[in-house]
Amino acid sequence: MLDFLWAHDWRVSRRVRVARGAGEARCDGTSNFAKLAATAIFAASIPAGQALAQSNAIEEIVVTARKKDETITDLPASVAVLGGGEMQTRGVLDIELLATAIPNFSYTTNVGASDNLFIRGIGTVGAGPQFEPAVGQVINGVAFSRSRIGRAGLIDTAQVEVLRGPQGAVTGRNTSLGLVNIVPNKPTDEFEASVFGSVDFEAVEGFQLEGVLSGPISDSVRGRLAVNFKDQDGLLDNINPAVGGTSQTKDDFTVRGILDFDLGDRTNVELLGQFVDASRDGKSREIIDCVDPAAFLAAIGDDCELNRTHVNQATFAGTDIAETFEIEMTFLTGTINFDVTDSIVLTSITSFTDTTISDVVDTDLSNRERFLLANAEEFSQFTQEVRFSGDISPELGFILGGIYTDYEVDFYQSSDANFTANAGRRHQISQQRNEAISVFGDLTYAATDTVDISGGVRIIREDRAGRAGQVLSDLYSFSNERGACGGGSGLFGCRFFPDIPEFAAGTVFAGLPAPTGTFTSVPSFAGGPFFETDDDDVTWNVNAKWRPTDNSLYYVSAATGFKAGAFNLLALNPDNALNALNFSADPETSTNLELGGRHTVDFDSARLNFNWTLYQLEVQDQQLSNLDPVTVVQSVVNAGEARSRGFEVDGSIVSDTTTFGYSLAYTDAEYTDFPLGTCYVGQTVQAAPASGSFAIGELGSGLCGPTLVNGTVVNVQNRTGTTLVQAPEWQANVNLQRDFAVGENLVLTPFIELQFVGEHFTDTELRPESENSDFTLVNARLTLADSDGKWNVALVGQNLSDETYITFYNESGQLTPLSGGSFGFPNIGRQVALRARFNF
């Protein structure tokens, strides 16, 4: 006979019961939980301290990304969930590695000041501090506007939810393509402690250690403390004998504390604080494509092949300078839940985030003194959200609220060139201020016993202000600015050009001659104008779901998304009129249509779960960082229209001892309107039509040819009708695991998984050399656990076939003196690790 463990869920002010019976097991990523989480693509862990029965239990995963509790089998949206225990076992340390476990989701690092997130083959592409991703990231209910927040690490995580398609109506701004929701584990009513450790023996050698304490401090106060430390080698071997070692090494420390306390019977308060200090040494990229491989081999010793080796040595002015990436993040949230009535709750979420990032890049990937970039960014954000949620009647549920967001970005880049004809230093500093307020609402109406209709809307007002400037100087001659900033005025004038921010101290600049004269340590602008603009938009979603039986659900949904406009904060030629005109890019919008179903079929000794989704996603005015064909600078542009359509299928077959999981995704993603894309180096230029009209449409899709831009003939690539980057047509996954009893108290579980990814481009210009052939990854593990869930030990193998492919590709102008070349980020090779978890 089952008894029930009751846990209060303050997000929706209702009681959630979790079935628990004989033979219960703690759900920490061991094999037993995989049978319970059969409705997900992969097993999703429940926070330690909650329990589920192994049979006849509530076989549901609860998704909270849309500000309400929705079981995954009742959610009218395409979603993938990965639990914290499974993430630990797989070695998922940050969102970048999450991409190896979630179909139709990709996260790629970049050498610039932003990273790239993709869902269904569409994402925000380009480098620079100007970009906010169209795939939102939410941590503990707070949305973030910077892509590199994902590098801050994942610790003590309950689960990560990836929702595909626009989520802007309720979740917030800048989720026009989808959402990654990170749910941390919360304090427990009973004392518990756990230790997790991982030792990697191959590919990225090193270790990770995480400890957690949780439980009551008093009758009304609960606390949780998690500490995580990572020390890992990189995945590339540096074969330069003067340097050696590997790239990119990781040395990360993260600590999170949560206090949860009750103020009477109706009020609950949660205070969360997290600090991250993450350090990276070296860049995990290599020269992989050269016009003249023999010249590269003779000059710098690089073989121009994708083989996880490089010869990099950042040297400048006779000084060896390490390529580093460092991020420090302080994240604070305060959440108050007040039960207004037995069915309505008032929620207030206040958050403050301060992040400092520094990044040093040797652009030519060699030991030559050519070109060195150093970036420094300071990002701070404050948010305040207030919302009411609950039930107006048994048939009608609602969410009604508003949110205020205020954030600032200060960015500094030093570009140091040390070769004849271009020797010099360029200092670029930019600032951006965003202030946004929005109100949102969501209604769910139970029209009949089997039909629910729901819809949401968000009204957005965003005010943006930005400015950028630069100073050019002879090499280390700070008193000799060239032409007083090139004679710029107004937005890019020298008269307001700022001093070097304090946060640049302690970076690469500490090892170079100290700036003098105009440059001081005052981290503020001397004055001057901001370029100001504002965005107003309304996003909405509507869906209907029909449950003809307890084991079958059908849904149809439509949603729109909005992504705020962007500034060209890296103005390489700031006094150019065209560049000033293009300083601000328009917002990006999206429309998504979905038809889907979720089904279960019970057999005598097994259960079949089957989920399917058909979708079409259209993006208007997609934002890109494009190499301007006239000014030859990086500019923020709107690329016209892109479209992705396809289907997603996933599910599992579960018995008492065996789980078989599967997923399949088909994606057809292309630009439907993008005539002025940039050509890649070496691309064949088509001859102009005999008429001399230079009509780009006459050149055909994907061809490079001449056209007129502002009265100047330039070569551009018509991308209309061409595929998108990071958009494989087919992806598939199958996995199988089986439990074997060992004695009376032990369970041995072998697991094997095959992941197939179809061919796809990794370069935005579709250079042929950037195309990955299709590949299949083989993952396996062997887990030994006690039946009480007190401990488990797993021998884990990832990419056992040692497949090698490109995750990100780009051309480098700094390789031109050696006849031209390109670089790429390779994937992680074969990994073998021993991972263990102990619960006390």
Quick summary of this structure?
This protein is mainly beta and 840 residues long. It is built from six helices and 54 strands.
Report on this model:
The chain has 840 residues and is mostly beta strands. Residues 1-58, 474-528 and 572-580 have low confidence and may be disordered.
Descriptive key words:
5-stranded mixed β-sheet, 4% helix, mainly beta, 840 residues, 22-stranded antiparallel beta barrel, disordered N terminus, 54 strands
The strand count comes to: 54
Classify the secondary structure makeup into a structural class.
mainly beta
Rg over CA atoms: 27 Å
pLDDT averaged residue by residue: 79
Largest sheet: 22 strands, antiparallel, barrel
Helix content: under 10%
Describe the global form: globular
Strand content: over 45%
Please give the structural blueprint:
Blueprint: E1 3-9, E2 14-20, E3 25-26, H1 31-36, E4 51-52, E5 62-63, E6 70-71, E7 79-83, H2 84-90, H3 95-98, E8 105-108, E9 116-119, E10 122-123, E11 135-139, E12 142-144, E13 157-164, E14 178-184, E15 192-200, E16 206-216, E17 221-232, E18 236-238, E19 246-247, E20 249-263, E21 267-281, E22 286-290, H4 293-300, E23 309-310, E24 315-316, E25 319-320, E26 324-339, E27 344-362, E28 371-393, E29 396-417, E30 424-446, E31 451-474, E32 477-481, H5 483-486, E33 531-549, E34 552-563, E35 566-567, H6 577-581, E36 584-585, E37 588-602, E38 606-620, E39 623-627, E40 634-638, E41 641-655, E42 658-673, E43 704-709, E44 712-717, E45 730-738, E46 740-742, E47 746-757, E48 760-761, E49 771-772, E50 775-786, E51 791-798, E52 806-812, E53 821-826, E54 831-839
Parallel strand pairs: 11-14, 18-23
Antiparallel strand pairs: 1-2, 3-4, 5-6, 7-13, 8-9, 9-10, 11-12, 13-14, 15-16, 15-54, 16-17, 17-20, 18-19, 20-21, 21-26, 22-53, 24-25, 26-27, 27-28, 28-29, 29-30, 30-31, 31-32, 31-33, 33-34, 34-37, 35-36, 37-38, 38-41, 39-40, 41-42, 42-45, 43-44, 45-47, 46-47, 47-50, 48-49, 50-51, 51-54, 52-53
